[in-house]
Amino acid sequence: MTKMQTPVATPEIPPMPPMPRPDSSVDLVARLQRGEEAAFEELIRTHSGRLLSVARRFLRNNEDAQDAVQDAFIRAFKAIHTFEARAQLHTWLHRILVNTALMKLREQRRRPTASIEDLLPTFTTDGHQTVASRDWSDAVLERKEIAAIVREAIAMLPDQHREVLLLRDIEDLDTADAARILGTSSNVVKVRLHRARQALRTLLDREFSTMTPASRRGE
Fold first, then answer.
1. Count of alpha carbons within 13 Å of 34, Cβ hemisphere only?
2. Which domains does the chain possess?
């Protein structure tokens, strides 16, 4: 039987700005909860770079990504009194941003996506795949031109499967957190993620088959 393939590597994630110190975040939250305008400006200045990096992974258009960050800050400011002291500010903001980006994705008129059923592997009666999957190495996937193909392929997945893949494999959220954000169960997340990875591999196999040997080697 064909061995289960590991999930594809994360495509070219831009470096994150440095994380703010925990003690400074505690002070910032206290000032935000007192309604200090300067604190809101500091929140934007401190966290906007990281949030924009995250938004760009979900939203292909830079303007849409910037709008998502702005909306996320507004939502955070309105909800700052619900922030719990034991939580981390950057994690709380990240979840607000992810929810905002997902809502924007659902509002957009996106290109037609492939049916997930058409992208899943098929098997012979003895349990082998009818078409073998390629062996994708991290070295290949991390190359700039291949990373662009990966992003294009992810965008072609049906919404429900694309969202799970982004949350689990790109944002590295655990199953329970992804389920809470998507308003579904952990089992549903696991099934969708498995199918999304299979479908993404099919899309990448198709793209990779059209590349010349030289381009695969980065020549």
1. 9
2. 22-107 (1.10.1740.10), 116-216 (1.10.10.10)
